[in-house]
Design goal:
about 210 residues, two-stranded parallel ribbon, 2 strands
């Protein structure tokens, strides 16, 4: 509900600021929900769908720096939904007294960063599996095309590893990729020979042993 209120607040301010007869240079958004204010400082993609879309909408039209915390006691909006013993007729029109002072005197939360509803954060699970890649060397017309194709595969693997580690990602293949590709193909060639000519190699090994 607090997040929905923040969405409505952002929409309302955008509507008011788009009025031609009004010149508004800046806007300040207030919320007494420290959780919502914390959510606005995070990447929307970290949340489940409901929160993700609403946080994203708010951040499309407002800046995080424009959002400020206010105590529930000073939050005049609560007067519309909560029964209080105070007469808020005057404050509804003029606003709270602190708004008439310098911004340095406005309410500030010192513990905002420690409060967050983690139930709305997505759980990311990383799995590692081993798979066999079927590679048809006959598809390539010459040796150069073959080892350059393998070098591109190695580049893609390095790119994924760098992205996962949050490091700068390589953009093009290097001599290291090419050398590694050639060495890998040599090993695969020897392995395929040992399988295809297993009987012949066994005979040669036996004859060599007799010599």
């Amino acid at each position: 509900m607090e997040l929905q209120a923040a969405v409505m607040r952002a929409r309302l301010v955008q509507k008011v600021m788009s009025t031609r007869n009004l010149r508004i240079d800046n806007a300040t958004y207030w919320s007494d929900s420290k959780t919502v204010l914390k959510w606005l400082t995070m990447d929307p993609r970290n949340f489940h769908q409901f929160v993700m879309h609403r946080v994203a909408e708010i951040l499309e039209t407002t800046l995080v720096e424009q959002w400020r915390w206010i105590t529930s006691k000073l939050n005049l909006a609560d007067g519309a939904t909560k029964v209080t013993g105070q007469n808020q007729q005057e404050t509804w029109i003029s606003g709270p007294e602190f708004l008439k002072t310098d911004a340095s005197n406005w309410p500030i939360s010192k513990k905002q960063e420690s409060i967050i509803d983690s139930s709305e954060i997505r759980k990311h699970v990383t799995t590692h599996t081993k798979s066999v890649v079927m590679f048809n060397a006959n598809y390539f017309s010459n040796w150069r095309r073959l080892y350059r194709a393998v070098a591109l595969v190695l580049l893609f693997i390095d790119w994924l590893r760098s992205k996962s580690a949050g490091q700068d990602m390589p953009a093009t293949t290097t001599m290291a990729h090419v050398s590694k590709a050639k060495m890998l193909l040599y090993k695969l060639y020897r392995r395929s020979q040992s399988i295809a000519f297993a009987a012949e190699l066994k005979t040669l090994s036996a004859e060599t042993a007799l010599l």
